[in-house]
Structure formats: structure tokens, C-alpha cells
Amino acid sequence: MASNRHLGRIVALQTLYEFEFRTQSNDTSVDVDEILGRNLERYEAAIDDKTFVDALVKGVLAQQDELDGKIAPIAPDWPIDQIARIDRNILRIGLYELLYQAVIVPPKVAINEAVELAKAFGSDNSSKFINGVLGTAYRTLVEDTTDGSATV
Asked: Do residues 93 and 59 lie in contact, with contact meaning Cβ atoms separated by under 8 Å?
């Protein structure tokens, strides 16, 4: 299941990256469902839990403004629009999993998966940046809660 979810996160990242790129390029025909469907189709035999990927993509998009708002004070030297698009989307996925998926994704797994995505798709320093930001997010937004649920 773990590698299946790892591949699912890769598909989610590809989908979010393309959706953001096309949206910012004023592509009026952009459709997240079409992008996600096309990306999932490529890995149809390898990804059993397509609902996990769908929920991740839709959840990140639904909470994007809130996620960006929580990232901003944790990475004050990097305004959200100046963070590389790939890193920004990895941060959103990792933070979304920390805040909204804690029941199915342990925090250490969410952070580790985000770091692995950064190593695979980001620049040389992306993994350190992602690890630092999500580690701080965990300590300030998740760990300090008494019942284990995140402050959202």
C-alpha cells in the first residue's frame, strides 16, 4: 500500500502542478478532473486507491488559500508566490496531509513523503526546505494540539 500511495502522491503532484501552470497561463480550458483522469490512466495498473489520489488533489485545491496562509508565516523569507511551483505544491500536499489526513497518514509519513517528492522533483535544496517548513508546521500546528487533531 505504501508504494501505491507514494505513486498516488506523484500523480497528485503532477496534476496540481499542471493545473496551477495552466491556470496561471490563463488557459480557459483547464479542467482538474481531465488532468487527474489522464494522469491516473497512465498508472491504472499500479494505483489501486484512486480515491486517495482524488481526495488529495481535490482537498489541496479546496483548502489552497488556507494552506498558503499557514505556509506564509512558517517560511517568512519566501513569499508563497516566490516559492518554486513544484516546491509550493509539495508543501501544499504535505501540509494538507498533516492537517486533514492525520487519521489515515501518520505525520512522519506525510513529512517523509513530501521530502521524497522534493528529492525526486525539486531542486538541490528543495528537500531541506520542505523538511524544515513541514517540520515547523507539525510542531506549531499539529503537535501542540491536545487531542492529536490539527488546528485548522
From this structure: no
The number of beta carbons lying within 10 Å of the beta carbon of residue 111 is: 22
Condensed to tens digits (0 to 9), the pLDDT of residues 16-65 reads 999 999 999 999 999 999 999 999 999 988 998 999 999 999 999 999 99
Global pTM? 0.91
Grid cell of 130 as nine digits = 520542505
Are 115 and 130 contacting, i.e. CB atoms less than 8 angstroms apart? yes
d(CA 59, CA 96): 7
Give the integer Cα–Cα distance in Å for 66 and 138.
16
The answer to whether the beta carbons of residues 81 and 42 sit under 8 Å apart is no
Beta strands in 31-140 (DSSP E): none
For residues 108 and 82, what is the distance between their CA atoms, to the nearest angstrom? 26
